[in-house]
C-alpha cells in the first residue's frame, strides 16, 4: 500500500498561489488545477490556495446556492488533483454547506494521496458596522463560526497550523498553535485592497517574528465583481520576519492576476532562530497563561453529581473539566446547570485550570441560553457551601435567562432558587424525556 509523504523533511519546497476568483466555479477550478500542476513541475511538495478559492459570489443568495458539502463534487476534484499530482494541498477557504442559508468558511488540508487530513472552520467572523461611512459587513449573517482550534497537522514541510484571513488579527490563535507545536502558520485570505495596503504584510511578519514560525499566506487578488476587490500579495515569510517569496500586490490597472511563488521551508534554520533567541522559554507562565476551551456535545456516559446520577441524554455540552445539563426543576425557562466533572464541594477546592474552564464554559452556555430564550440578561449563581444554600455538595453554577417582569421583585429569584429543589416544592419534577428533548435542541448550537 502506498503511504502519504508526511515524514518531516529538514528542507521542503512549498508554493503559494494567487488568483482572482469569480462566481464561476468551473473557471476557478481550472485556474486552481493549472496552479497546482505548475507547483508540481517546480517540485513543490505543498501548494497553498487562497481563501474562497472555490468561488466569490456576487450576491448573498449566490453564496448559499453555490455552496457544497465536504463530500460534494468540488472537494472530490480537489482531492483528485492532489492525488494525480502527488502533492499536498491547502484549500484555503471552501464554502462548506451547513444549512440552506448558512455556510462554514472551511480550510481543508489534503495529502498527496487525496485524503483530507484536517478541516479547520474559521472561528473569528468579520463583523463591522460604520453607519457614518455606510459600511455594514457582517460575515456572521452568512457564515457560522467554528468551535475549535485544530491541532497542527504533520506535513512534509513541518507541523502546519490552519487559520483563515481575519484570524490573522488575533495573535492568541497563532500563539496557541505554536504552543501545540506548529512550525508553519497559514493564513489564506481575501483582504480588501484598503486593509491589505495598510496591514497585510505588517501583521504577517509580526506573526512570524513573535511565534518564530514560517508564515504562508495565499491571497485573492483583484476585481472579483463590481462590488469587491482584493489586495493580493501572497507571501511566504521566514521565522526572522524576512519575506522569502511574494506575488504581486493589487494594481488598479491590472484587474486580474494568476501567479505562484516558491520558497524553501528549512526546519534547521527555524531551530537555529529558536535556540539563539529562546522566547518560548522566557514566557512567564507562572504569571500569565493562555488556555484552550476544549468542548464536545458527544456524551456517552452518565455523570456523577455528588450522590446523584445525571443521565447522558440530558447533558448538552462538555468541556475538559465540566459539563452542562438540563434541570429537573426550573425556576425560569432555560434554567440549566454547569457542574465540574470532578466531584468536589467548594470552589476553593478547584485548580486554577478547572476554575478558568468552568467560568469560560458558563459564559458560553449563558450566551446560548440567552439566544435560545431571546433574553438580554442572566442570573448566574453559585451556592458555595451549605450555609450559602447549596443542597448538592458538588460545585455547580445555575444559569437563568432573565426577562422583563419575570418576577414581581427582581431579587425574588433568589428566594425561588433557594426552594426550587425542596421536597416541599409543589412544582412537579420534569420528565426525563422533556429534559432530553431540551438537551438535544441545545446541542444544535454547538454541533458542527
UniProtKB/TrEMBL annotation:
The active site is at residue 396. One of its GO terms (molecular function) is bis(5'-adenosyl)-triphosphatase activity. Keywords: Hydrolase, Multifunctional enzyme, Nucleotide-binding. Transmembrane segments: none annotated. The keyword Hydrolase applies. A motif (Histidine triad motif) lies at residues 394-398. Its cofactor is Mn(2+). InterPro entries: C-N_Hydrolase, C-N_Hydrolase_sf, FHIT, Histidine_triad_CS, HIT-like, HIT-like_sf, Nit1/2_C-N_Hydrolase, UPF0012_CS. Substrate binds at residues 327, 383, 389-392, 398. Gene3D superfamilies: Carbon-nitrogen hydrolase, HIT-like. Its EC number is 3.6.1.29. The record marks 414 as: Important for induction of apoptosis. Residues 12-267 form the CN hydrolase domain. Residues 301-409 form the HIT domain. Homotetramer. In the N-terminal section; belongs to the UPF0012 family. Cleaves A-5'-PPP-5'A to yield AMP and ADP. This is Nitrilase and fragile histidine triad fusion protein NitFhit. It comes from Psylliodes chrysocephalus.
